[in-house]
Amino acid sequence: MDGFAEFGLRRELARALAEMGYEEPSPVQRQAIPLLLEGRDLIAQAMTGTGKTAAFGIPIVQRADPRQRDPQALILAPTRELAIQVAGEITRLARFRDLCILPVYGGQPYERQLRALRQGVQAVVATPGRLLDLIQRGAVRLDHVEFLVLDEADEMLNMGFLEDVEAILQAVPAERQTALFSATMPAPIARLAQRYLRDPARVTLSQPRALTVPAIEQFYYQVPRGHKVEALARLLDTKAPTLALVFCATKRMVDELAEELRARGYRTEALHGDMSQATREKVLRAARAGKVEVLVATDVAARGLDIEQISHVVNFDLPYDAEVYVHRIGRTGRAGRAGEALTLLGPWERNQLRAIEAATGARIQRAEVPTVAEMEAREREMVEERLLKTLQGGTWGGYRELLAELAEEHDPLDLAAAALALAVGPRRELVEIPRVAEQPPRAPRRLREPARNGRPGTRERARYRPEPRPGPRPRRARPQGAGGPRVRRPRP
Predict the structure, then answer these.
(1) What is the pLDDT of residues 186-203, one digit of tens each?
(2) End-to-end alpha-carbon separation of the chain, Å?
(3) What stretch(es) of the chain map to CATH 3.40.50.300?
(4) pTM above 0.90, yes or no
(5) CB burial string 417-430: b at 16+ within 10 A, e below
(6) Which of 40, 160, 251, 392 gives 445 a disulfide partner, CB atoms 3.0 to 4.6 angstroms apart?
(7) Spatial distance between the Cα atoms of 207 and 432, rounded to a whole number of angstroms
(8) Which CATH superfamily, name and number, covers 216-372?
(9) From the CB of residue 37, how many other CB atoms can be counted at a distance below 10 Å?
């Protein structure tokens, strides 16, 4: 937590960061947070996965007033997956501040979002299309928005949201703070920033190129939410590493994963910043002596780590930038030895992986987590190998006579199977991990769609320019049907 103490954060926010296991700011956080806390507009050019959510989420949580029921912060995201992810991250940061962070996106029932807005929220994370619908309905008030964030602005451009974004920018107060985060800065985004941001500060993160280690093979495994631990266990069983170094994002996750692996029978040790130097040295001595199978660590704790026995590096969580990824995988393949780098990829991390590939020039190959049938087949092979080795060595002692006696009353095959089961021990129950299909790159959305039955297409409808509307909304009569005329009453 010392790294975040320099920002002078509220006690509640500092506590949340500590419990989330944040050790020190990422490069974009170190540069952006002080500028945003000063109230400056900001343009940050940073790849996906650099820690930018916390870069703007921390200032939002620091400055928001829980007593204000209308949104004070508005974050625009190009996809509902990103909106959900960002809202979840800021909610965790705000857990001790009694703030409500509401994700607003298409595909979710309107009533749920309308009810939450009526109850009061301090920040809204929204996709542009759904937010415009709520503005048109008069369901969301943006009069008190003081901080606006455009997250992944270039992606919103690619998806055809730029006009929607401009409409929203015109609907929020002109006297506001605006932050724009984008991996690239195409001309339309640069013009948008010039038009709507006031004397913005600039943060640009340079990314390393071609820093991969040639001796290291790199693979990623797409794993559904909630199945990462099981997937890791299967990879440890099939790869049989001399020593696996597993990286987690936070200290808390390191402790939880290490405990889970120990419960599954792996000789596992944890390594993170809360450990004393004496404990750290004890763990490293055990690892070098071959007494540890799995070492679970944070990036900070693994700095300068040089253990020749490390044969596999596993990214249980993707790092916040490409440089950290390169540092991680460099822990294996030392002194010309071969090594493997394995990444367990959640569905929400695909863009992050593509950004790392682009920044490093690495080719990270897709592989599949072993299925239940493959794991059972491997177990049979291992038992057969051990059995034949024992048979050839003639080290079964007096068990032959015991088997001969038991065979007078029991089937010899049943006895042999029971003996193998006794030697192998209890078997872990395996559950099939659902396969995740490869997602093709998302095609850009068209700005216009053809008219249907004389009615404008959906994208034409979304080209909305809010204007002041004095007085109550007029009643709009619907066409008369079998049940007689119906009239929609104005919202209060």
Answers:
(1) 899 999 999 999 999 999
(2) 46
(3) 2-204, 216-372
(4) no
(5) eebeeeeeeeeeeb
(6) 160
(7) 38
(8) P-loop containing nucleotide triphosphate hydrolases (3.40.50.300)
(9) 15
